[in-house]
Amino acid sequence: MLLLTSAIMLRFYRNDFETLIHQCRKRKWKEDVSVIVDAMRDLSTKGWQPISDDESIDDGKFIPPQPQLEPTSKTYVAIVDAYMCCGDEPLGWQVVQEIEDLPTITRELPMYRKFVRGAYLLTNCNHIAELIALAREDKIVFTQRMGIEVARMYGYRHEEGFNILAYELPVGECGAKMKRQGFLEELMKSCAYKNNSVGTEETLQAMLKHGFQRSAATEIALFICCIQHDTVSEAQVMLQHFQETSLMMPVPVYDSLLREFYFKYTRRGDVFDESSRKVAMKTLYARRAIFELVFKDRETFEAEQNATLINGPDQDSACFRYWCSKAGLPCSPLMFSQHAVQVLTTSRDKDSKNAAEQSVRDALMITPDPCLFLLQSVVALRFLDLTFRTLGKLAKQLLAVVTDELQMEKRHAEYCVSQLPVLSVHIVKELDDVVFLHLTHRADLLAFCQDALETNNIDKTMGFLMRRPELYDAETASYLGPKFAEIFVYGRVSNVLMFFKSDTEDTLKMRRQFVRDVIELESATMEENGEEGGSSCFSCTHKAIREFKLEHDAEFRPYLMQARAAMPKPVYADASATPVDDTSYLKIPLAQEHIVVVDSDETLLFATDLLMRDSVTRLGLDVEWRPDSRATVPSKCSILQVACDDYVFIFDFVAMALGDLEELFEHLFASATIVKLGFAIDGDIKRLRWSFPEVTCFDTFVNVVDFSYETLETTTHLVDGSIVLFHETDDDCVSKKLLRRHRRRKGLSTYIKQALGYPLSKLQQQSDWERRPLTLQQVTYAALDAFCLLLLQDAVSKNLVKTNVRQSKIDLNQFPMSTPAQVLQDVQFKERLADVEARLPVTLALAQEGSLAKRNQIKRKLYYDSELIRIELEERMNALGIESQWDTASEMKDANTKLDAVRKQLKLDVLPSSSSPIEKLYMVVRMLTMALVLVGWISCVTVLIPLKLLTPMLQKMGVKKNYLPMDIVSWGTAAMVCVTACTDVKAEGVENLLNLKDSVVCMFSHSSNLDGFIVNGSSPTAFKFAVKKSLFLIPFLGWSSRWGFDFVAIDRSHRKSALKSLKELAVSVNERGNSVCISPEGTRSKDGLLQDFKKGPFYLREETKKNVVPSIVFGAYELWPPGRLFSIPGHTLVRYLPEYKPDPNLNRNQNRLALRRIYLKAFTEDVPDYIGTRVGTTFILKNMFYHYLAWSITVKVTSWAFTAIDLVCYYLDITYGTFMLFSLVTMVAGEALMFFTC
After folding, report:
1. In terms of domains, do 221 and 197 share one?
2. Does the first or last residue of the chain, that is N or C, have fewer Cβ atoms within 10 Å of its Cβ?
3. Total domain count for the chain?
4. Average pLDDT across the chain, whole number
């Protein structure tokens, strides 16, 4: 088939065949690769002549030889890659060897890279030595990643691996010794991971013998060998062996780590298994700073051989004294902290903890400055793999040891201030409790809090500020105001509004100022993005105004109205659009051929060659990703733009594997000689790290200039997310404090316009960056976004831009208490209920005039406002974790009683029944016809149940769901019920069901007996309904529903039975692909208004993991409300709403409330005036014809039935009475079976 596909291509390109090879690689079609290659060779040399079955007949035009199809080096790279991915390493190696006999083909780096990568994934190193020999002949230099993969393959064959990595592996001349050192360290780790401790030890001894050095990485590898043992005693024996043979540093901290790991991660039964070992290795990697700092003081520790002799019952105290005696070493505070963590976290009883604290106290007293060393140890806690909460707890325990006896001095506070940039708010809070920075260094602490609001836990930072009266004032609010507004608008963090909850003297003033700040930020954002009047129009402003109850403030009312008028439209921008206004936008001053999209090995080689040159001293960086403002999961980066003075390279992450780009990126971003220019580049870096967590090339960005700040500072972005000042002459940049900086209020386009005179067009910013190929407009936009940063730097260097610093104010308020009373206050229950009650008389007066639909619509709208209060109360209690008090708290009971009183007065009006004798007679006729359809006709349908046995065969024949026999009968029955009831059904939103790509759970509002029939008869999808059990007990109707239509009976009086039925319905969805329909209200509404949603339908939704299609029926309640004998002929409307995708981050109850909001909103939308009113005479006459037709068919079928009964009685030689008795027994048996199985 692939050969045929290859041969009949109308235009022959080598890339087409290479694409086929790539498809074989993806599908593991190993045998077809050779077929494609043979086809390429034949077509390139012989051409192709299609021949029919009769060889004497020419079946097509001869295609001459196509020389361009001759396989090239790139083709053989694809072949090797395909074989390796198919798991056939010998065949891949055979292809590599065959190239030797092909004079036109050369082995290039991509081929070696693909083979090494494949062998690494297959853990097969049989031909690696031969491959390296070929690479040396071809003068190929292995990349860093290739060397690491080779090292990892030789964990069980360390001797051979050492010879290859130390001498044979081609690594180039530049930094060869350092590269080989790194590869050998990786070999040691591979041996350790594979529990080859002998290989690890022998590899290190060989390294020392051949001139290589020990390092922190070798220490870690040997430590991994120790934790491969099952008990701590065995691990300590191996550790002591390594230290006595001078293979590991003779320090007691390693023994402390071992004891902590085995104590924490040993499972029940004293088993330290593979699961425990995985967790220990993960923790070990997180604490690698211990090994790195210890190794920096290597000479000091190796001079003292007695360090490993610390043991015995007083071992912990001796270790504490050991590190305190070496307080002058840079690593001592961290080692002291590690040992404190081990002792304090492994002490289970109070006496042992007191003894540990006493040991710490006694050891600290031998240091020259106990308080300073203690503070250094607390600061060093950040290097340990601990949660923020645990860090705070340990810091508190350590600080409580000596602070009761010793007083902190000014120098101690200054030391703490110097360390603020690298600390979390959890540690700072504990330091402040003993050093009182908020009294002595208020400005520095506020600057720290401003940064912590962006990089740390926002709630913890706000709590830290609010619990200190000296900080919790208007001055602090003014200082931090811009940051709070930025977090609220850009970060969408609503918690900042909690600062305005308490009533203080300046509360109103602070609220108004905060709203003004939010308005300004949103206005600037809309101006920057060209979104005035768009979907995000003043959404945050609207939220703040509502929260602060400023709706009636004349200053803010226009913004409130504009926000309400904005309708969200989640669509992407046109990727091929160009600006149509008269504005002159900035254009890129480069030729199109100087904008290179890096999406292949050729373009990557070109980009690497140019960007690795010494002449490249600055780069403009920018990142693009698909817009995800309405997505549940952020989008990954699609492209990275890198601009130098002459070229712009657009690295396509969709087309390229990041492993091929990692070495280049690591050089560019870690280089101190290349300036990286960006605008809000910290956000781009965070998105890159989130998108590709498996690589390390985005860990560190050195020499960065961010134009989004008013003050331009050269910084370094570290792997832990911190930003520090960059200095070329300083090796350690951690201690360099980065002063507080202000972000610009305007975006890049405005800044560019100020500097260069022309703004940037942002037309393509919201386009789909994952779509391929990229349009010319997208490529041009992306290139200019990065290149304009170079132009901006030139302009700034000439002092063309003046910056302004803006100050704003904000107030700080207390967090609300988690009580029902506070919840009522939070949602402004009294005020909003009073507003609803005040509008109630007017609403009831207006509901006396107009059509029935209009009158009920007026009531629905006020009901929406009152019910929204109930929903917000329940949502708030869910958010605070006190939802269990919803039904028990007296405050909530009282609130629900008041809301129910409002609901009672808003009961919808119904269509009055007529007293006319003719209409009563017509009603009787319709009732009899409906009974005839549901019982008489369905009895015939029961006979059709065996048609279900044909369903699998029909599906194999291509008959789709919704067109199977029983589905058609189900539709027809529902439609006939609507006809016999003389109900006119209109449907809106049917396209929401036609466009479904998967089965769904349809939920419908329920206020009448007609609802289910209306939904089933008007839907293009055949639903499986959940029906109350009593309906299944109707003869024939219940049988057909249960065994014919696959409906499920719900026993609402027994919870376990109902859950079992819901699981049965879930099986119908998950295993058979059916769509189901259920009412979230459970039963009919007695007043026509939406009832509370039951939990059962949402349990079903969770079991099926399907989306929900909400539907609302209008008019059915007005025609046939509960309590009325039968329906009045009239008009109804069913609306199918857009598919609702439940939020996976919300629980079942929260999704229930979210969907109820959607229903309430749709419940208040206008409906035509004729809905819920009587049908016209024409419709009734047409309906009477259908009744006549139904009875005519019934009479005819009945005569046939009696004839058939006579024949049966004759052939069975039984009387008519016997037959009827048998039929009665059968019906009773069926009903009994139905009763006990539903």
Report:
1. no
2. N
3. 8
4. 82
Cα–Cα distance for residue pair 977/926, rounded to 1 Å: 10
The per-residue b/e assignment along 394-425, b for 16 or more CB within 10 angstroms, e otherwise, is: bbbbbbebbbeeeebeeebbebbbebbbbbbb
Q: Where are the alpha helices (DSSP H) in 1084-1215?
A: 1096-1104, 1116-1119, 1148-1163, 1177-1212
Give the residue-averaged pLDDT of 499-515: 78
Name the range with the highest mean pLDDT among 341-350, 480-489, 1161-1170: 1161-1170
Backbone angles phi, psi at 28, to 5 degrees: 60, 40
Q: What is the pTM of this model?
A: 0.51
- Give the Cβ contact number of residue 276 at 10 Å: 18
For residue 519, give both structure tokens: 């308005």
Each residue of 585-606: pLDDT tens digit? 888 988 888 999 999 888 998 9
Q: Are residues 1206 and 1170 in the same domain?
A: no
Alpha-carbon distance of 993 to 989, in angstroms, equals 8
Answer with the one of 266, 282, 303 that is the final residue of a domain.
Answer: 303
Nearest CA-CA partner of 759 in 792, 720, 717, 716: 792
Express each pLDDT in 1177-1211 by its tens digit.
888 888 888 777 877 777 777 777 778 778 888 88
Contact 595, 639 (CB under 8 A): no
Question: Among 303, 318, 347, where does a domain finish?
Answer: 303
**Statement to judge: residues 776 and 837 lie in one domain:** no
Question: Do the domain assignments include residue 400?
Answer: no
785 with 660, same domain: the answer is: yes
Residues 956 and 1072 reside in one and the same domain: yes
What band does 951 get if pLDDT is binned at 50, 70 and 90?
Answer: confident
User: Which helix (H) or strand (E) element contains residue 640?
Assistant: strand 637-643
Report in angstroms the alpha-carbon separations of 388 from 71, 144, 282, 392, 452: 58, 35, 17, 6, 13
Q: What are the angstrom distances between the C-alpha of 1168 and each of 115, 474, 554, 1131?
A: 70, 55, 36, 10
Would you say the C-alpha torsion 563, 567, 571, 574 has a positive or negative sign?
negative
pLDDT tens, position by position, 1044-1058:
777 888 876 677 777
| 501 located within any domain | yes
With cut-offs at 50, 70 and 90, classify the pLDDT of residue 1033: low
**In terms of Cα–Cα distance, which of 1114, 1115, 1110, 1116 is closest to 1156?**
1110
Tell me which residue range forms the domain holding 88.
1-50+61-117
What distance lies between CA 127 and its chain's CA centroid? 42
Q: Give yes or no: residues 245 and 282 share one domain.
A: yes
Q: Torsion over CA of 1151, 1156, 1159 and 1160, rounded to 10 degrees?
A: -140
38 and 179 together in one domain: no
Residue 824 contacts residue 830 (beta carbons within 8 Å): yes
CA dist 102 and 988 (Å) reads: 68
Question: Which one of 535-539, 888-892, 962-966 scores highest in mean pLDDT?
Answer: 888-892
Residue 595 phi, psi (nearest 5): -105, 110
Rounded distance between C-alpha atoms, residue 1021 and residue 591, angstroms: 55
Residue 302 reports pLDDT greater than 80: no
Structure tokens, 663: 């070495």
CATH number for the domain harbouring residue 962? 3.40.1130
For 716, list phi and psi in degrees, rounded to 5.
-125, 130
Alpha-carbon gap, residue 382 to 427, rounded angstroms: 9
Q: Is residue 313 part of a domain?
A: no
